């Protein structure tokens, strides 16, 4: 049985819970810095994975199609609406 996805999901859920509980105790400047650090880390990982990608045209096409479908379906607007309703 593959347990990797379950471990990943558990880590994401635990991280979300701890982040929600502890974020109010952190100063604003640290929260902003952490967001920037995680964003830059994600960008770096993405660049490394793109460089290793054997099927770059397929990846670019999938990204373009995903963006096009998201724009046509107004996914960002729907996600923002759900976010505002849950807050």
From TrEMBL:
UniProt key word Transmembrane: yes
UniProt cross-references to PANTHER family, sorted A to Z: INNER MEMBRANE PROTEIN, INNER MEMBRANE PROTEIN-RELATED
Protein name in UniProt: Membrane protein YqgA
UniProt keyword annotations, A-Z: Membrane, Transmembrane, Transmembrane helix
Coiled coil: none
Presence of keyword Methyltransferase: no
Organism listed in the record: Escherichia coli
Xref: InterPro entries: DUF554
Pfam families on file: DUF554 (PF04474)
Spans through the membrane: 6-23, 30-50, 56-75
């Amino acid at each position: 049985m593959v347990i990797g996805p379950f471990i990943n999901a558990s880590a994401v859920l635990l991280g979300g819970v701890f982040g929600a509980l502890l974020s109010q105790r952190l100063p604003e400047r640290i929260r902003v810095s952490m967001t920037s650090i995680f964003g830059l880390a994600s960008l770096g990982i993405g660049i490394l994975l793109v460089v290793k990608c054997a099927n770059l045209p397929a990846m670019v096409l999938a990204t373009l199609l995903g963006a096009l479908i998201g724009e046509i379906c107004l996914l960002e607007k729907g996600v923002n609406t759900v976010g505002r309703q849950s807050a």
